[in-house]
């Protein structure tokens, strides 16, 4: 008759010991774990000691269990397992205060996120501390899971993070536990200049993985400090220059050391010269994707030329501080892959070569550029902003023989406010996009318009348009309502500075308008505004006073941008 097969046959001593532990044969389990200890190393040795200590616990032999736990700590001081076992044994012996010290030591030695058991170590420590001293104030961050605590810290401003480092050791450990909390250097809340040592400490906490730097003039980051960031932070990809002042050599010198810079923005309050912009673009041409310079200084009598080749650049914003000359043909040739272009306050009366070379362009803003003639545009445009060009129309000047025809089938947003466009010109520019039902937002305010005849001669009808601006148009209420009726699916309407009354407001609400701008509409009473808000409509309105002046008061609860 065949002998029954041993279920542990072929297994190692560690597995056999676990089997004996499960059936509560603790002494046999100890012998197998001892055998495993003699033939193991590193993590397997740590596990074998832990299992043998657990068996000693079950047999109430706390002294050998404590010795095994201490061996675990000596072998792996950066691991939670030894502190958990040692603390438990001491608790079973009735030495709770000593167990507390072991747990606290473990929290100092084991880095947050180092292993999955550190959270358990923190939890046991918190419960013991509460039990031993119920009246003592507890730190809420210690009771949160690591991921939640780090999410809380992620919302702290840079200055607040630095302050929190000094609150307690546990807060310092938490804040320094993840370099991801320090990947953005934001100096917008800095109350005084940032020293070189402070900057170095911040970069070390990020493990040199800084990705974005928001630099204000108040922080006084000079060439040496910014160069330190660009040189040592290889992953730095985004720089914002904020505040009031002049930026030049400190930025042009520093960006030459950057390896991964993709985005650079200089705010509208920082002056920067055309030559400095060219140097920056040239230094970063291999990596730069987006560049924005919103207060450009230059020579008003000389053309801005010498643009480097920028094949990777996808978005460019250049806003001149005063009317400057720009060789846009050269710029188009140097940036063939742009998707978004903003050129404001430049002198661009006529663009003879056209802009079709920007074949991938989807957003184009040529506002306030003294344009006289609309150039040939890329057919893929989705957003076209031509506002504040008072002489711009589709009509051909006398010295031009060829009429420019632009077909823009994908156009979604068109802003012609403050131009000389007539109804015929608007229709010709929008007919393709209206036919394909792509046009969604239309701004036609601040123009000289006809007050008689059919509104269909002045305005294109479009079911797809959901946002319309007619601000500051000199027309009577009845005609304005006729214009609005051409767009049956409107949800956003700007009629600021017009002569409408509360009758029109009720009509707008009836037609389903959800956002309404009525700034400087002097014929409207506050009752009409409040009635519209009561119907769930967001209304932006400046309340007229009892005199002829207007109070500078805005109900901020209902503000919103027209193009939102």
Please give a structural write-up:
This protein has 564 residues and is of the alpha/beta class. Helices cover 36% and strands 13% of the residues. The protein has a 17-stranded parallel β-sheet that branches. Helix 3 runs parallel beside helix 5, helix 4 packs antiparallel against helix 5 and helix 19 packs parallel to helix 20. It is elongated.
Work out the helix count. Answer: 20
Low-confidence stretches: 1-5, 396-400, 546-564
Largest sheet: 17 strands, parallel
How confident is the prediction overall: mean pLDDT?
A: 87
Question: How is the secondary structure organized here?
Answer:
Elements: H1 13-22, H2 26-38, H3 42-58, H4 62-75, H5 80-92, H6 96-109, H7 118-132, H8 140-143, H9 146-154, H10 158-164, H11 169-175, E1 184-186, H12 196-205, E2 212-216, H13 223-232, E3 238-242, E4 245-246, H14 249-254, E5 263-266, E6 270-273, H15 274-283, E7 290-297, E8 315-325, H16 328-334, E9 340-347, E10 363-365, E11 383-385, E12 413-415, H17 423-435, E13 441-443, E14 467-469, H18 477-484, E15 492-494, H19 502-510, E16 515-517, H20 526-534, E17 538-540
Parallel strand pairs: 1-2, 2-3, 3-5, 4-6, 5-7, 6-7, 7-8, 8-9, 9-10, 10-11, 11-12, 12-13, 13-14, 14-15, 15-16, 16-17
Helix pairs in contact: 1-2, 2-3, 3-4, 3-5, 4-5, 5-6, 6-7, 12-13, 19-20
